[in-house]
Please model this.
Amino acid sequence: MTENTEVAIELKNVKKTFGEGVNVLNGVNLQIPKGKITVIIGFSGAGKSVTLKHILGLLKPNEGTVKVLGQDLSTLNERELNDLRKRFGMLFQSAALFDDLSSIENVAFPIREFKRKMGNDEVLKLAQERLKVVGLSTGDYEKYPSELSGGMRKRVGLARALALEPEILLYDEPTTGLDPIISEMVDKLIVDTHHHRPGITSVIISHDLPSAFKIADYIAMLDGGKVRLFGTPKDFFASQDPFINKFVKKARDQE
Amino acid sequence: MEEAVIEKKGNFITQSVSSLGELIIGGIGDLGEMSSFIWTSLAWITRPPFRFKEILEQIEFVGNKSVFIICLSSLFTGMVFALQTYSAFHMVNSDTLIGPTVALALTRELGPVLTGIIVAGRAGAAMSAQLGTMRVTEQIDALEVMGVNPKQFLVMPRIVACVIAMPLLAAVFDFVGNIGSYFLSTRLLNIDAATYLAKIDFFTRPKDILQGLIKAAVFGFIFSTIGTHKGFGTTNGARGVGIATNETVVLSSILILVSDYFLSAIIKMILY
Model:
């Protein structure tokens, strides 16, 4: 990675232990570049979700630092952390939509929360725009999450994550559990969203290897609580590491 | 909380004592965690945004939607209490004391306690079920990641709403219960209506009503903190939600009855 690329998220020697000596993160060093699509891959238990939670500030490391958009999370108080969180949007694995609100109200929720001076009509108009961008049909705007299919829920979840025009977009296992056709749709959605907003940083946590190699600008591979390799897909194909080779072969086989 | 690994060596006695110790330490730890939960949630009352909309919505859910069941329960409670006290008072020819006896029993005890148990079962269970479901579907994480503090948005309005709505509901219980007793006594048991009402007036004081309302507020605080705390801490999917809801109702009911005794004792010391 070149020196003059700006860094959106930086983890320095992050270590995290749970319970009695369960070392989930053993010194993670990661620099996620601004404006690119970075996919963090790894097998189950390698520490992907835990890394994500550290980036979001939901967990604090036992050792090491986490810097997001230049700010060290451990130096922020609750209000400052909340302010920082407004600058990123997250799509949860199950979309995590509020089930007592309709699709459009779900998207309107962060807008209402943080742009209190906006009138109701303006808020709804903005929410509609976001839903249009993710390709949800107008007939589904008033539907509740329980009435939507999995793919539609992800769209609404993405629209909600984009509501306040975040600088960083995080995706937690976006294609896990989805059939190949919907997975491809989600991949396309991620890439389109990224290019629709110049400058946005997209970070995807996944163990969908073919997707990762297809859409990523950079890939970070987590293994045993450490970053085994960070680079472009080309770097991965060219690697001499037998573990990486096995990984790459598996991805190719799955396509 | 990290659990200390205690090697179980030694004989039965040392093992029992160390198990007891673990239980107590664990219990105190849980109590501390819950106190911290309550404290951090309530601290949000004074910090903007003030969440009036959410508080009002919760008052409607806990209060308005409980009115019917409270009226129905209290009507029959008043009636049956009048019926049963009649047997005793009739023997000593003091029928007219039924009025104040029922009134005092309702305002001091039955009103707040039964309201507490009924509403805990209704609204307290709903709180733990809803928050528990939100927890296992990552909706609470979504709020946090969005920059909205979940304790301020979800927990605080529920606790505040219960403390406000419960005394009001207890008052409804007191009133409707007395109506039930009045009609039973005067129509069925042939007690003179004027005397019935006059005796209530003679024996019942504002402090009798007030203490019931204060108790009701305390019970509201009890089941709302238990319900929200259990909901927030739910794990293990749907099964976990069921367990949390069950524990909420059981624990709330027990604590309401236990605290009722201590509250009554304290009130007796202060007011009488």
Summary: Residues 180-196 of chain A form the longest helix (17 residues). The two ends of chain A are 28 Å apart (CA to CA). The CA atoms of residues 14 and 64 of chain A lie 4 Å apart.
